[in-house]
Amino acid sequence: MTQHLADLARHAVDAPARDTRTGAAAEPAGKPRGWWRDAVIYQVYPRSFADSNGDGMGDLPGIRSRLPYLRDLGVDAVWLSPFYASPQADAGYDVADYRAIDPMFGTLHDADALIRDAHGLGLRVIVDLVPNHSSDQHEWFKRALREGPGSPLRERYHFRPGKGEDGELPPNDWESIFGGPAWTRTENPDGTPGDWYLHLFAPEQPDFNWENPAVADEFRSILRFWLDMGVDGFRIDVAHGLVKEAGLPDMGSHDQLKLLGNDVLPFFDQDGVHEIYRTWRRILDEYPGQRIAVAEAWTPTVARTANYVRADELHQAFNFQYLNTPWDAAELRRVIDLSLDAMRPVDAPTTWVLSNHDVVRHVTRLAAEGADAEAAQRRGRAASLLMLALPGSAYVYQGEELGLPEVTDLPDEVRQDPAFFRAAGQDGFRDGCRVPLPWSGSEAPYGFGPEGASSWLPQPAEWAALSVEAQTGDPASTLELYRSALAIRREHPALGAGDSVTWLDGLPEGVLAFRRDAADGSFVCTVNLAAEPVRIPAPGRLLLASGDAPLLDGEILLPTDSAVWWAV
Ligand code: GLC
Fold first, then answer.
1. What does the pLDDT read at residue 368?
2. How far, in Å, CA of 530 to CA of 532, rounded?
3. 93 Cβ inside 6 Å of ligand 1
4. Could you give the CA distance from residue 403 to residue 396 in angstroms, rounded to a whole number?
5. Residues 68, 70, 73, CA angle at the centre, nearest 5°?
6. What is the pLDDT, as a whole number, of residue 24?
7. CA dihedral of 146, 220, 131, 317, whole degrees rounded to 10
8. Of 448, 446, 451, whose CA–CA distance to 463 is shortest?
9. H or E element: which one contains 97?
10. Distance CA 3, CA 7 (A)
11. 93: number of CA atoms within 13 Å, CB side?
């Protein structure tokens, strides 16, 4: 039997006091300042969350209609991947107008209604900001092309003459993250071959030149636009990419993708980015209600990630080192310590993330080779409980609370990930984690859209059993596990914010156990990553288990790939 004693705890949660602007729960006495320090932030991928009009594509009214689900799940904030006007060459990360909603997702009025409703339910709203590049359909870029060499609009991007006799070679050897050269040659207004422009991602995503003051001015204004709309923060896309090394020097090597995250590259993690974030922090601080920003920053070390969250910069940065850690007790312990140690000196919360719209869902990614669906679920659930027990803020990617696996058999003709169509780039299989959510019913689209409607990516038949409806009320389900975990996390004094854990040693190899202490209660998390079940003394009162974990004579039998939370 699965033990979810936490049901008791869930019902015991008192209605919290509310912040008057956002409606979010006010800070409980005794917990550290700053709502983001322990927030659970739920990533909504608008294309795939809920489709209100039956066109097969999720939209803002769809998200709005499902906000009560997120409130009941127990998250603190919602981060929305881009919904801006966009030709969708990279699923909306190619923005044509930063102040408009793509008609496929709705209108500004829908965005306003969504923000208001979310606040009314006590949920904060974080929007994605894409400052490294625009769409090639952005007005500035279109004019830059139209007006040709000498146009001041060209200074807002990186246009350069090519090398070689006729400028037929790219200006330097940089490679696109999505594969192929990071440069595309333009055509002059008279039809002759022209300069090249830089795009670290797809050719439809020209990189801005952040040395140009018009770019910085524009983004300050965009920040204010959305802050005035009432958003609570921003997720900064490619926060490490805005500043390029002066002179755009050659890398001198190929396979640059392999170097990402190992070295400071001439186009990534340049020190100059920090001045931009200091300016942004001042803007965020002008607004009431603790508006925040979280960096998507790929850096060589967690210590360099910490630079983005110094006191006068951003509030959080994603911890990709943790996301990339294999399911191995020693490795996890090392990375957890490293992450906490890196953030402590800058007094920023560590973040924990297992899944997002760019990586293979963690149920599938962490699974042992040859594991069946049940074993994969078991490990995924244990990983989730471990993550949610760690000090700091946690990110949950839509559908992970349902235990959704990666869809690995999408036919080529339905794929939309631009990297899929460019050889030797980022893996190109990001569609598999973007398949629309199953909400209810026994047939596709499983409540994602109206009955009979299709979905932009096909949903697997097995997802009927994983829908919100199918899992609700089943104490053995992953959804109820998340609901219980988030309720306990909110309530237990030793969970949430913090900057350290105490490891409990003397346990069999492959078992991770740590303790967290607060003035009015301690907490222990035990996880068995070994290939065999282990029997260990019960360290306290069992709060929640990720799977069967029988208690016998003061001992608990921890099966392989299980995690248990304890009140001590
Ligand atoms: C970020 C996004 C990813 C996108 C890329 C380019 O890494 O998470 O989805 O393709 O930036 O904007």
1. 97
2. 5
3. yes
4. 11
5. 110
6. 58
7. 180
8. 446
9. strand 97-101
10. 10
11. 21
Residue closest by Cα to atom 12 of ligand 1: 93
**What confidence score (pLDDT) does residue 423 get?**
64
Angle formed by the axes of helices 213-229 and 108-120, to 10°? 50
| Tokens 């990553």 found at | 529
The first and second tokens of residue 36, run together, are: 């983001």
Which whole-number Å values give the CA distances from 310 to 149, 242, 546, in the listed order? 40, 18, 35
Residue 391 contacts residue 350 (beta carbons within 8 Å) = yes
pLDDT at 260: 74
Which residue ranges of the chain lie beneath pLDDT 70? 1-32, 423-428
Kindly give the pairing relationship between strand 77-80 and strand 124-129: parallel
- Note the pLDDT of residue 33: 76
Ligand 1 atom closest to 426 (CA): 10
Decide if 52 contacts 59 (C-beta within 8 A).
Answer: yes
Cα(183)–Cα(175) distance, integer angstroms: 8
DSSP 179-218: SSBSEEEEE-TTSSEEEEEE-SS-TTSPBB-TTSHHHHHH
* Residue 268 identity (one-letter amino acid): F
3-state DSSP helix/strand/coil % of the chain, to nearest 5: 30, 20, 50
Asked whether 245 lines ligand 1 (CB < 6 A), one says no
Residues 76, 36: Cα–Cα separation, whole Å: 9
| 317 vs 297: CA distance, rounded Å | 7
Residue closest to 167 by CA, chosen among 155, 149, 154, 151? 149
- Site to substitute for ligand 1 among 43, 48, 84, 93, most atoms within 8 A of C-beta: 93
- Centre of ligand 1 to C-alpha 33, Å, is 31
Q: How far apart are CA 443 and CA 463, in angstroms?
A: 9
Examine residue 28 and say whether the peptide bond preceding it is cis (omega within 30 degrees of 0): no
Which token pair is 172?
């330097």
Task: Please tell me the distance between residue 314's alpha carbon and the centre of ligand 1 in angstroms.
Answer: 19
Do residues 383 and 327 lie in contact, with contact meaning Cβ atoms separated by under 8 Å? yes
Cα–Cα distance between 498 and 492 in angstroms, integer? 13
Question: What is the model's pLDDT at position 39?
Answer: 98
d(CA 342, CA 350): 9
d(CA 200, CA 206): 8
Residue to mutate (ligand 1; options 136, 235, 237; most atoms within 8 A of CB): 237
Tokens describing residue 331: 């490795």
The dihedral through the CA atoms of 184, 187, 192, 197 has a sign that is negative
Provide the 8-state DSSP code for 460.
P
User: How far apart are alpha carbons 540 and 565 in whole angstroms?
Assistant: 9
Q: What is the DSSP string of 327-379?
A: S-HHHHHHHHHHHHHHHGGGT---EEES--TTS--HHHHSSPTT--HHHHHHH
* 405/376 Cα distance (integer angstroms): 8
Smallest CA-to-CA distance from 360 within 305, 299, 293, 410 is with 410
What six digits make up the tokens of 118?
């979310």
Closest-CA residue, ligand 1 atom 7, reads: 238
